[in-house]
Amino acid sequence: MKKVVLAYSGGLDTSVAIKWLKEKYDCEVVAFCADLGEGKDLDYIKEKAVRIGAEKCYVADVKEEFIKDYAFKALKANALYEGVYPISTALSRPLIAKYLVEIAKKEGAFAVAHGCTGKGNDQVRFDLSVAALAPELKVIAPVREWTMSREGEIDYAAKNGIPVPVGKENPFSIDQNLWGRSIECGILEDPWVEPPEEAFEWTISPEKAPDEPAYVEITFEKGTPVAVDGKEMTPAELVANLNKIAGSHGFGRIDHVEDRLVGIKSREVYECPASLLLIEAHRHLESLTLPREVLHFKYIIEQKYAEIIYNGLWFSPLKKALDAFIEETQEVVSGTVRVKLYKGNATVVGRKSPHSLYDVKLATYAEGDLFDHKAAVGFIALWGLPTKVYAQVNKKEY
Amino acid sequence: MKKVVLAYSGGLDTSVAIKWLKEKYDCEVVAFCADLGEGKDLDYIKEKAVRIGAEKCYVADVKEEFIKDYAFKALKANALYEGVYPISTALSRPLIAKYLVEIAKKEGAFAVAHGCTGKGNDQVRFDLSVAALAPELKVIAPVREWTMSREGEIDYAAKNGIPVPVGKENPFSIDQNLWGRSIECGILEDPWVEPPEEAFEWTISPEKAPDEPAYVEITFEKGTPVAVDGKEMTPAELVANLNKIAGSHGFGRIDHVEDRLVGIKSREVYECPASLLLIEAHRHLESLTLPREVLHFKYIIEQKYAEIIYNGLWFSPLKKALDAFIEETQEVVSGTVRVKLYKGNATVVGRKSPHSLYDVKLATYAEGDLFDHKAAVGFIALWGLPTKVYAQVNKKEY
Amino acid sequence: MKKVVLAYSGGLDTSVAIKWLKEKYDCEVVAFCADLGEGKDLDYIKEKAVRIGAEKCYVADVKEEFIKDYAFKALKANALYEGVYPISTALSRPLIAKYLVEIAKKEGAFAVAHGCTGKGNDQVRFDLSVAALAPELKVIAPVREWTMSREGEIDYAAKNGIPVPVGKENPFSIDQNLWGRSIECGILEDPWVEPPEEAFEWTISPEKAPDEPAYVEITFEKGTPVAVDGKEMTPAELVANLNKIAGSHGFGRIDHVEDRLVGIKSREVYECPASLLLIEAHRHLESLTLPREVLHFKYIIEQKYAEIIYNGLWFSPLKKALDAFIEETQEVVSGTVRVKLYKGNATVVGRKSPHSLYDVKLATYAEGDLFDHKAAVGFIALWGLPTKVYAQVNKKEY
Amino acid sequence: MKKVVLAYSGGLDTSVAIKWLKEKYDCEVVAFCADLGEGKDLDYIKEKAVRIGAEKCYVADVKEEFIKDYAFKALKANALYEGVYPISTALSRPLIAKYLVEIAKKEGAFAVAHGCTGKGNDQVRFDLSVAALAPELKVIAPVREWTMSREGEIDYAAKNGIPVPVGKENPFSIDQNLWGRSIECGILEDPWVEPPEEAFEWTISPEKAPDEPAYVEITFEKGTPVAVDGKEMTPAELVANLNKIAGSHGFGRIDHVEDRLVGIKSREVYECPASLLLIEAHRHLESLTLPREVLHFKYIIEQKYAEIIYNGLWFSPLKKALDAFIEETQEVVSGTVRVKLYKGNATVVGRKSPHSLYDVKLATYAEGDLFDHKAAVGFIALWGLPTKVYAQVNKKEY
């Protein structure tokens, strides 16, 4: 019998999808569930998938792989979509797609399936990742395909013996992994309304944060964070750790009207304590160690990087080429950054590096200044020459 | 007798320069002093210039002109050099240069002069602004030219009856105007050391800021802020006002290792409560009102804009062309942004506009969704087609 | 009875569409046909449309409007998609769409229609132009919608008394206007095969071009060509004229594997004698009159410009903002460019301008050199300072 | 005795420099002369250097190294400064500088020297290359430093027994290597005057080129040309070969008003048959094999690449990072390009590759079309959605 491999979360949509796929495609469903740091009970989910009708359910703790091979690459790119969002959800989709494809090959499935709707960004990321890794595989998106409303889904679940979540529904739609937590829907759909406290789980409100600041020192090796306050940690440990520290000081909230690839603006709220903190620290270390020409051109690379991953092109030759650029720049991005955390603020207050290009003997205005002040005259003469010639030729009003 | 027009601040360097210019160039010195919001005593400075030997001293309160014609243009460009510095000092130099040139023409001077050293950015901004406005004028930079140390200057002043500042010297070098305050030198020259509280004047430390948050609503018309909490103000009033409010909540500090045009890195500390607050608010309003294509390409424009002004090209055809681009985009950037101020944070928590492109009927996941979910299938099929074809042709490992 | 306004070319597709629209939508069809320089017989086309069943047929000679308001704006941007294609067809679609919308408003139509297929770029340009100008109008694309093959269309035409073209079919698919002629299909679909001579109509083969070169001088005013060999002409006359001259010398052929917005590569052949000639001349004049900073940043603007118009965004705020940038730069782009035409080559051999920034007294290596050679020492010292500091800090292998 | 290593060409400037350096710096001079394809008589030059007073003279045939490690990297970047100049001279300077540094280290020299003037680009390239490779070495530029006119040099030579070139002086200033030949000065300094035939040596005039076209097929492996007409060649052989073939058909002349780093415009004439031909062929192969997203972003990379190398940053971290990007993209750029040469034209008329992304089954308008035409409807709906929403919200006039 033919098979479909389904990205299974344990929630209503993908639970209904197990049954729906079997009926619609007359196939067996192999479920897959990954833990990226949401704190999932993988055993329970596995058992539930099978109970509902999946032939089997693969589970995997991919936290270390996710942070090491996905999030930390984005960190080297200081990847922030539209300057604010650390693309946490966008980074997780290609990883899950990679597992879906691997399992599909192992199981001989003809298709993979995911629970995305037709209006979000995630469908694009799944569909394109699969197209890049296994263009011969079909991708099925049951929720995009069926015409059931939420009530219809609940009816369908009831009729098919699928457990329906009881009690008060979460008023928000949530996706989370170690790199960040996204919060959508409900009251947040009005961009004039301040996000209510109950939207947040990882960050305390600045008002309730400790009255004493905390300092944290992050050590980087070639662009990768390796230690906090001198203590070495694995990638996922380090991020989990910083999520806790920074979140406990009220740092990491984002409130943004965002442009989705599918052509609409949506109001997105995020909690990203560790990722925002690490990007801020990494940027300061780059300011110290990268020459101006690299730094300024890297901004262009960074913007493109965030954009294409947001748009689903993680597995693409452009992404590989941008990575090659970025990787080359990180060779000297080693050192330590000191950050002060206090009631919602994460302020870099110190940075040092064996590769520091800051040279106090050139920069100082005190004794010991080695800078050649006379050179400036010649420099400005030539740097300003086009301006001068232009002014001589064209009597322009400003 | 030939004349030089000198940008005069009242401090030691430019006071010594009055005498030095007269001797060195055998000329009369006409001084000029502008108030850009530093809270200068223009009468006192005028009297001092003449007392030291200037033939006369022009003074001008240019606060409104500065904010309206310089700072608010940069605001429309969200101009932040290296992503962090609102180019406040850089914006003031061309304005002063414009006055120097006007006075030089009126007075028939052969040259203008400024008090910049040979290693900062400001010499470039003065020299290029004058070259653009009056390429026939010579520019003299006495401090860059003479070889006196600070002690030498004090001796020279003493010998020439020039008042020398007494008492403990300010350990920092300061430049300020309504758009921001820069702090350099002293202990700040070590980028690992946290800036001490005494470096700051406009911002209280977050720890000492009020325990209650404040909300402020800023209204923009075509990209220009026109009102605070519904109260209309002139440009300079509005900025002065926001400097106070935001500074009193501990917001607006910047700590940055910066790349100067003259090829060195320097550690710069700034206080920019109003400018940072306005840029943040303006950006959020743009997210709401500008289409994605404009928004994303405008990032490239913005980076270039900040860079060329930082580098002295305010009066240049490239600046004019970038302004034309930006001005065209601002037509729809009208509306109100709500910002919460609390202990160092300025968080945008609401935004609204008659030109809002956020359409709840498209974005909502609730009933009333007008988005065509089926369209996504076709969209992704074509958006992903190059990825698919590439994967079919090239068996690439990711 | 409700109405549709159809972009009518007189060919088989749109002739069939008249009948098909009436049946499918139970509506009247108002036809519109524009002459953009294809040499159409508008009277005949008008009569044909009505004969087939259109309620009426508007016709318009829009050559001057097209060149002045569309092509010459693209010229100022040196707009070449992927560096080679002067977007001639892409420029014509928004103009036609504008007329469709105007007529639809006048006639009270509920929709406009065009004859594009589902795999080209033109459907995008029509659909988006209408969406921008009149978002309330429906856009119908009969050829994209119906499922008839070419044979099916011919049957349908025969049954419905629609004249069918007789004789040998053109082996290529052609679109043309004064700015260029596109040739697709047939043997051209193999990118290894050299385009055969019969594909070309506007350009003689270089081998058959005259043995004597010709020189042509083109005069620009603020970026717009106004005269050829000193003779003033209207925009459309000038372009028609240059198409003849340059084409008769074998210049203007393009052979390109192009990336369509819909995600595929296609092999495109073009003849664009006037547009390529004008862009080449215009670029040389810009090299003479624009300062380096403007010139180099304008390349980024130009690439974006060509890309968004290719992708259908003529009527868009980004296009308006790019136009504002470009227009501002053209103020000084006046002067004359001399081009030598010879057997397929158009070589700029001279350029002059009252705004020339080329200053022989600075550039010359002969006597009279005013360039300050010593300034270079200071210039290089500072321009190279980051390189030197980087090398001192990092012992890098190259 | 201390030593200086001088880049020695055998011409008047560097011959005089041997003596001048010895006197001025009281040092020994070690000469170095490289053959980059100028057809130099290295034995003669070596002997001459020693005869004039050099302690010794190193010579090296670096043609293969130059093309392989410098020119072919630039080819992968399609590097054309200001869109036209293949940076041939700019590429040679860092290579020579590398040898100067190596010899300086071996000989224990305290400085290297070159014969550049103070107003060209080459001084920058030498100075920065040395700064990057050996920041501790001093760089001396005698011609920039001394104040002799050409007549002064001739006098100096006569007095010091340095051979002076006799007979009619070349009216042009020439620099050449396998990647191109630059021609400056004399009548060329008037940008309105057509370059005279005697300026050219590598290219016949199109009028005198053969009446029969020639076809040449160039095979690339991962972006590097490896064979001509199926015949494998070493890099330098291949380029020398194409210079001959293309030059003999009148192809490869460039006439350009160029922006130098030192702030002036200069009129430059070049002959670059092989480099222009290879770049054109390489671009066409990239059009066939690179996905649109890579292709379009690579334009930005390419522009930056040409610019920074033109400006002397060959040995720089930015250059290395750009190379990493480019190298990654070239993996699939293998295949063959067919070029027709005829009287000044080099026209790509065919291209094929095992990595071709052109898929006739998607592109064809004939039977066998596999493209999903219906997908376009969904695609355009979402691609055009921002345009539509913008139009609904803002009644904008176009």
UniProtKB/TrEMBL annotation, chains A, B, C, D:
It is found in: Cytoplasm. Residues 172-390 form the Arginosuccinate synthase C-terminal domain. The keyword Protease does not apply. It catalyses: L-citrulline + L-aspartate + ATP = 2-(N(omega)-L-arginino)succinate + AMP + diphosphate + H(+). InterPro entries: Arginosuc_syn_C, Arginosuc_syn_N, Arginosuc_synth, Arginosuc_synth_CS, Arginosuc_synth_type_1_subfam, AS_cat/multimer_dom_body, Rossmann-like_a/b/a_fold. L-aspartate binds at residues 117, 121-122. GO terms for biological process: argininosuccinate metabolic process; L-arginine biosynthetic process; urea cycle. Gene3D superfamilies: Argininosuccinate synthetase, chain A, domain 2 (3.90.1260.10), HUPs (3.40.50.620), Single helix bin (1.20.5.470). GO terms for cellular component: cytoplasm. PROSITE patterns: ARGININOSUCCIN_SYN_1 (PS00564), ARGININOSUCCIN_SYN_2 (PS00565). ATP binds at residues 7-15, 34, 115. It comes from the Bacteria. Pathway: Amino-acid biosynthesis; L-arginine biosynthesis; L-arginine from L-ornithine and carbamoyl phosphate: step 2/3. Residues 3-163 form the Arginosuccinate synthase-like N-terminal domain. Pfam families: Arginosuc_syn_C, Arginosuc_synth. Keywords: Amino-acid biosynthesis, Arginine biosynthesis, ATP-binding, Cytoplasm, Ligase, Nucleotide-binding. GO terms for molecular function: argininosuccinate synthase activity; ATP binding. L-citrulline binds at residues 85, 121, 125, 173, 182, 258, 270. Its EC number is 6.3.4.5. Belongs to the argininosuccinate synthase family. Type 1 subfamily. Homotetramer. PANTHER family: ARGININOSUCCINATE SYNTHASE. This is Argininosuccinate synthase. The lineage of its organism: Bacteria, Bacillati, Bacillota, Clostridia, Thermosediminibacterales. The gene is argG.
